[in-house]
Amino acid sequence: MKKRFLALTLAGGLMIGTLTGCSSAIKDSDVALTVEKEEVTAGVANFYARYTQAQYETYYAEILGEDMWNSEAEKGKTYEESVKDSVQKDLEDMILLEAHMKEYDVTLTDEEKAVIKKAAADFDEVNGLEEKEKVSGADTKTVERVLTLMAIREKMVGAIKAGADTEVADEEAAQKSMQYVFFSYKNKDEEGNTTELSDDEKAAMKAQAESFAEGVKAADFETFAGEQSLEVSTATFDKEATVPTADLCKEADALAEGETTGVVETEDGCYVAKVTSLFDQAATDSKKQSIVEERKNELYTDTCKKWRKEAEIEVHKNVWRKIDFNDLKVTMKMMETDPYADQVQTDDVAEGQ
């Protein structure tokens, strides 16, 4: 069995400042969601939404700007609408994960429950009455409920993913390797500024690549490149690889070991490559790990999606729409603490299962 740390902390607290109003219209006892027969109160929904909002405003406000919540996240949807949809889905999943705990023999230990209570109490102590009054659901009981759902989700994610198939054949993950030289259509000055070559300069650069591709056929790739002061890079790939470019990987994938490509031209420049191995063990092992991780993520996602499809879920839109990210500014109030504070060590699944 391997051990892991179950994180149960709210990273200090929330820094709350009114912008255009407050969330007092929301009553904690109102129902925001009903998942099967389990009711998610407005207090729980609002607090989890505000906690998510705080993460965005803390880490992305500089990038997205002051009006981030009204800016477009995807076609026809603002960041507020997108994040609220994500929060709603999270809450639905967490309630369903809680309902299916017995199927996976998942429980919260007394030690974990104690840590949850302490984290909720710490949050209550860090945030003053004025801050908590501005955010519906910022009472100890609600915070404890949200932390409990988050802790259950963390343990259920591991339990569900443990059911994924971890056997990956060499053929499925096989990776090849190449050396390549890139002839760029851009210049970079000492300050890091990039400028595009003229059409004539691009033609000359392509001609240089063609000359290199012809000459390297009868020479050692690295030595020949060195003689022309060209930088040689390496990459591992398969037929679906896109780095350094999909076209180069596709052409190299059709070659035998030791063969070189012709000139593969892209918008940014030209590539010439040599296949150095048809089976790179280290890269193949790494690919196997990524395939297993992808399987685990797919199993978890598909399991939650199936449960949501089968469950009776009702969204109380009249309550849900009252959660407005434009009425309050909420950021994280960071505290310097022991990195393992409010965490407990817990048994995880056995290695390789």
Features:
353 residues; alpha+beta; 3-stranded antiparallel sheet; 45% helix; elongated; disordered N terminus; disordered C terminus
Description:
With 353 residues, the protein is an alpha+beta fold. Helix content is 45%, strand content 20%. It has 12 helices and 15 strands. The strands form 6 sheets. The protein has a 4-stranded antiparallel β-sheet with strand order 10-7-12-11, sandwiched between helices. It has a 3-stranded antiparallel β-sheet with strand order 4-3-13. It has a two-stranded antiparallel ribbon with strand order 1-15. The radius of gyration is 27 Å and the shape is elongated. The model is unreliable at 1-24 and 335-353 (pLDDT under 50).
Q: How far apart are the termini?
A: 10 Å
What's the Cα radius of gyration? 27 Å
Q: Roughly how much helix do the residues carry, as a percent range? A: 40-55%
Form type: elongated
Mean pLDDT, nearest integer?
85
The fraction of residues in strands falls at 15-25%
Number of strands: 15
Tally of alpha and pi helices: 12
Question: In brief, what are we looking at here?
Answer:
It is built from twelve helices and 15 strands.
Walk me through the topology:
Blueprint: E1 3-7, E2 13-18, E3 31-35, E4 38-41, H1 42-59, H2 61-64, E5 72-74, E6 77-78, H3 79-99, H4 110-126, H5 129-134, H6 140-161, H7 170-173, E7 176-184, E8 186-188, E9 194-196, H8 199-215, H9 221-227, E10 232-237, H10 246-253, E11 264-265, E12 269-277, H11 281-310, E13 313-315, H12 317-320, E14 328-333, E15 343-347
Antiparallel strand pairs: 1-15, 2-14, 3-4, 3-13, 5-6, 7-10, 7-12, 8-9, 11-12
Helix pairs in contact: 1-3, 1-6, 3-6, 3-11, 4-6
